Amino acid sequence: MKTLDKLMARSGNQCELCAATENLSIYDVPPTASNLSDREILACETCLNQIEKKEELNAGHWQSLSTSMWNENLPVQVVSWRMLNRFRNESWAADLLDMMYLDDETLDWAKQTGDHEGDGSIDLHKDCNGNILIGGDTVTLIKDLDVKGSTLNAKIGTAVRNIRLVHDNTEQIEGKIDGQQIVILTKYVKKQN
Ligand SMILES: [Zn+2]
User: Fold this and answer.
1) Is 119 contained in some domain?
2) Quick one: which of 21, 85, 100, 161 could link to 115 by a disulfide (CB 3.0–4.6 Å)?
């Protein structure tokens, strides 16, 4: 049986985290280099976007973790544990984590993305209007950019396609203007819809 069919059957055609029945796809629980045979879960788009930090966390969406944390499938437990950890400063999540039990091996796996570290908040790249930017977006410049030592024509209104997010700096993106790859500050761009 194909993986998707298997997961559909296992979950009863619903998101294994929040029970949504629309926009389901396979989430390969990282790290994907591991050789565990059972590593996938079925998840909806909303869950996936928040897991992958493309959208801000919405605690209201994750109350269902109180159910999914008891799922018999380890990858579902792992993702539930990770998401609970992102909310661990909130009492509802802290209480659930206190009740949750993972064996040592599974706990090691769960810890590998570091969701139990840091303050649980996520940093997102945002444009001048506060819209979330993701890799591959097209943005337009909202001011002329003065690129030192260059004749680059980076005028206000210039479209920059297929941007790349600068890892570990949410104020910067990279994109090509006139064939040159440059770093642009997110506050000077507007996301194109
Ligand atoms: Zn979901």
Assistant:
1) no
2) 85
